[in-house]
Amino acid sequence: MAKEISCAQLEELMDGGSPCAVLDVRERGEFNDCQIAGATSLPRGEIEFRVLALVPDLKVPVVVYDEGGARAALAAATLAELGYEEVAVLGGGIDAWRSEGRPVATGVNVPSKRFGERLYRARHVPHVTPEELKRWQDEGRSVAVLDVRTPEEYARFCVPGGSNVPGGDLVLWAHALKQRREAMIVVNCAGRTRGIVGTATLRALGVESARVLQNGTMGWVLAGLELERSPRRNVPVPPVESVSEGSRLARRMAADAGLSRLGCEDIDALLSRRTDGPFYLVDVRSRREYESGHIAGSIHAPGGQAVQCADDFIAVRHARIVFLSNEAARATVAAYWYGEMGFRDVSVLDGGLRSWAESGRPLFAGAESGESPLVTRAVDAAAWIDARELLSTGASRGVTILDVGTSAEFGAAHLPGALWIARGRIETEIPRLFPDRGKPIVVTSPDGRAAALAARALEGMGYERVRALERGLRGWVAAGGSTEAGLARCLVEPNDVVLSPSITGDLESMKRYLEWEVTL
Asked: What's the pTM value of the predicted model, to 2 decimals?
């Protein structure tokens, strides 16, 4: 059993200068409503998939908390099973923390968003209102709109005529933008933070015509203007000369900020643990670039996202952070902003991944995997049922089907008659809802991996007839199974997903969100 610590002990740990991680293991919506200031959201159902990337050093002290219930102790047991050496549970959880009047926050990615608002004021970042931009466009005046969101976000909608240049790539475009004749370069995101940081980046690199679109796409909608839906424009490629000049500009930025640059041998020392202390290798390139070849052990965090939601990538306080990109330009900009955010040990691989490869050191292709061995063990040990068998006449009669994917995935499509529950709530809710341990249960998730973990938990609780659906919903659909949509059959509140108001389209939520962001 994990040790328990008091709120006073946790506050002392967080205020100290030693590395530690504080993990909120409640659902994302609960975290959004109220959290310990400075904690990282890691819902219990995501631990096996994310924690090794989020807390890469097993020796780092880890404190987990919930509302004062059972989830924190269950999460601590999982962390101990994974090999974390010093795990503690906050006694009384966040309820005790709040009752003692200690600092709390609301929202997600609060540190990054607070930084964006401070940057906006400190750097006097100029803005243009949606109405002003629309008037310029209608008048045919010279203006370029750069959307710094991810390609996936951009593909849904954009400000009319906007081009997608992910925020981390702006340094590669700075020289080209300075040569263009547009009277104004307008930078936007969905709300405020990425647009502010992107505009500040361009201006720091000498693009004086850069302006941020006030409140981004949400501001555009709230002004009564129409977004362009499903834009077909591809992400543009920066000119070779501009990429080369971006490296020079980044070196100047690094020198001005006093950023340290590490050599390949320094990375070797980190990876071989010859250098003490927790560290992160953060690769800020695009997903395609990362998957084509990266340093083993590095995490993927595209530059704009690395700044926009730093706490989703970096959970260990006072850890060393080394940024990586092809030739260090993009890595330098990310490192620069992390330094401005207050991270105390930030550096860049000198010469980038090109120097790493040219030195004969290996790069590994494929997707990032922070997945723990517990997932593999659960998959290997699960009793699987094939979709064709479940589809056969009578096979599903009397069977309870539990879907443990996200509520958003469940709402979009699920097996007919399935019930949804957050995987992190299995142990606390299923015994009460289904006391008969002999009842046949089939567990499903989008690809079956989360279902295997849920089946493992159910079997550990004494449920005797548990099977996991092979390949999950994907296997079901491939076998010709029909699906339903909607959230009518949820066993617990579907508060595991926090959607941006820019996606939901709710105008009142947009207003509240922007007001919250500004007050940070």
From this structure: 0.96
